[in-house]
Automatic annotation (TrEMBL), chains A, B, C, D:
One of its GO terms (cellular component) is cytosol. Residues 249-268 are annotated as: Disordered. The keyword Cell cycle does not apply. This is Citryl-CoA lyase. The keyword Lyase applies. One of its GO terms (biological process) is carbohydrate metabolic process. It comes from Phytohabitans houttuyneae.
Length: 268, 268, 268, 268
């Protein structure tokens, strides 16, 4: 190697990948500065999730709220697209990690990404309300602007349940965290204001759904919107894995979405 | 629909997908019989992982041991193939779930699957020892047979660390679980016997590595070998997500494995 | 099954998946109405690609132009993110299809998706020019609007090459197709007008790049913008497969992006 | 950078990724030594597929035979697991490349990988016959050994069709290639001998299926078994893309495998 200042150096190369998350050298593994041997057996999995994403360990109140959200989204049965893909893939002779990957891949803007988009929406409301505007007025403006773009308002509406069984436990935990001073309640108030805005002039309410509830949790906890999707991925991976494993044990090979006796319709 | 006995019926169709993991109907979500509203806020994420995979909630001792294993494998830095793929993918303008999926997909037989294969190996030793043979003799036979098939013995050897910092905390937690009567120790004894067999006649030992340690944990806890890989997937997904998110924030687009100033070698 | 009109019927089920692409029954496979036995050995792979996507076979001129675009994008070496991911994944003990999948997954908005976005842009210019506006004026308005949204204008600029070797052959084939009356030239003229707009007031031109050239081809051929990405996927899958296979033969396991002797930088 | 012989050098780094497939430098793209501008518009997509995988351009006879196999496997309708996954994924708000990736990921040992395994089997027969044994005797031994391992013999049997419409055109093209001296016929004879062996003592024959026919083609053309799967991936990606695109146009969101009116069965 010559001395030409334009020639690449080893330093140029070692800087190409840089991380604050972990330091790994022979006989050393540190996660955000914590030696891993001090975490194993003493720190919960949820606390380690927070640690890797945020840079420090969570407080007990933060950990509890994150845990509630992670538990809430683990599964929604074999008709959820992610679960269906996991089960179909599991019959094709690929590894469990591959079946999980095919399924996690489907958690996009429409299936799992709604929480991310709702967090954007609630963030806009909370930011305006934090700047002095009434939360009701903020909700009205923001909802108006989002509705002009699309008829689907992320986080609100009956997707499958009339009264989603995950809603009350999640929102109650948020209120408890507000009462305990763990979070401010800004996102909770924003979500309630949006729900109020959606109810105006309608006979049937448009309630917040689970994407909206988890968006409230992740917003209160200070996660950026894409991590609402990322955390939904960690949660749903549990159900995806369980279903892929269960399908493997049922013994069918190359399973399609329906029995072969019901062929798809041919559109001539 | 006619009465022809050969015609498919709606029953044929509804039986095509069947699960014991969850029951999802309008306003109802039950995970292994537990209403989800009773789990959110009261049950840990790790306990829910066990619940979905095994069918009932774990005992505190089982939960602690599973948690230790899940924490141990979350990350191994940007040179681990799964982490590298996550970071590269994250610069390509795809969703976080897609970057995670591309990375989880790499956790195959060689990267993450070694725990699954080690669990098969230890299971063979433990089964023979359980049938009356000495564990040392069982280890000797099984190791001999595995070595005839491949020079890589899963779960043993220096992959990167001379003394893996995850080893001692994991094996100590297993021993504590044995002392507490949570697990039998059959896999721990099998792993120690294999380590002893590998040391015979060598100047340098071939110690158990982290794949082997997690295999011991998962074997003691009664998980089938493919779930050793599945649980490694849930664990490593955390680091994968964190690294994909961090790379997104570093602002580069379309990042390759090295700086463009260092082109790949062309083999003419 | 009862007679309740609300009960699902087998018809509801068989309509759930409907396609005009293929009809598959015992002993019958028809692709867009063509029995497959009439296609095998008589119809080119590229013509079959067109057939499945568009519904009928292409003319020879259309097939030639599509083929040129597909050939142009097959590979860009091991530093392209998709190729890097394929090669890393191939060392992890997963199937070739899995390595290909992880890599194809990275062909997003920034790596492969630029052609899709450029086709949107050119389509806007071509539509306005088709409505009577001069193509130069249309280019000026559209470029102005796109530049307000992002500093990256898809399809234009030096990404790696100063003079991309794929540009001239692709644009020449488009001009030939215009001369032969196979395509109208609307997208070619739009692309040239955009290039002219970008050159105004600059000392250095901002030439159309390969994403832009393939966008011109796909636009002239009448493909919707997402299929610009889809066709890029079919093309790049060839290089992805070849590189994954080659890496498999090089014998390394669990390969990271750089040699272990160059650790990543830790940001403390 | 110091002179320590143990310190990594830039050379160590640039050798980490090495390829004979392509050379990419500013203004240069060569595929197996061919400048890409000489391939675009003059060389077929199938010939380029061969070029990248094999290192040189195919003869016309080789190209025709490869093309027949690639055309044969492009689609098998919405009940094929890969197609089902593509269509479900396409309703989830992810990119077309992501839907394709999730689907390609399912082309494992059981769905698409059967061609790879059949090529191994036929290769064993052809090798023994090439060493002097009669092909019938070779077939008998090899089939016996494979049947001892699994009841599924890859490449043979009624999977869906009684008379697969792809069989005759594929095998006829192989025979033509033998007659033209393009290939030797060793794999064709091996496949016929296996079919004969499977027929012995049975009332119903066990005919070669499409996995077996494509295995014959890829074996005659000299492709290694994993590339039988790789080439099936390139072929099936076409149908996967077409179905994902068509489903996108049908407007449903978050589609499961069946209508919601038919819930999955809960195994209590």
């Amino acid at each position: 190697m010559n001395d030409d200042r334009d020639a690449p150096t080893v330093r140029d190369v070692s800087d190409w990948w840089s991380t604050a998350i972990s330091r790994v050298e022979p006989d050393v593994i540190e996660l955000r500065g914590h030696p891993i041997q001090e975490l194993i057996g003493s720190t919960s999995f949820v606390a380690v999730i927070w640690l890797l994403l945020r840079g420090q360990l969570p407080t007990p109140g933060q950990e509890r709220l994150l845990e509630a959200a992670l538990v809430s989204s683990v599964d929604h049965g074999p008709h959820a697209p992610s679960i269906a893909v996991a089960r179909i893939a599991a019959t094709c002779g690929i590894g469990l990690n591959n079946a999980v990957a095919s399924a996690v891949n489907t958690l996009g803007d429409v299936h799992g990404g709604a929480g991310e988009q709702c967090l954007h929406l609630l963030g806009e409301v909370a930011t305006r309300a934090g700047a002095g505007e009434s939360v009701e007025s903020a909700a009205s403006s923001v909802v108006g602007r989002w509705r002009a773009r699309s008829r689907y308002l992320p986080g609100y509406g009956h997707r499958f349940h009339t009264v989603d069984p995950r809603r009350e436990p999640l929102l109650r935990r948020v209120q408890e965290a507000v009462d305990d001073g763990v979070v401010t309640g800004a996102y909770l108030r924003a979500a309630e204001a949006v729900e109020g805005e959606l109810a105006r002039g309608r006979s049937r309410p448009v309630p917040i759904n689970v994407d909206g509830c988890t968006a409230v949790v992740y917003g209160e906890l200070g996660f950026a919107p894409p991590l609402a999707r990322g955390l939904f991925v960690l949660s749903r991976s549990v159900g995806i894995l369980a279903h892929a494993w269960e399908e493997t044990g049922q013994g069918r090979r190359n399973k399609g979405p329906m029995p072969p006796s019901i062929p798809p319709t041919f559109l001539s």
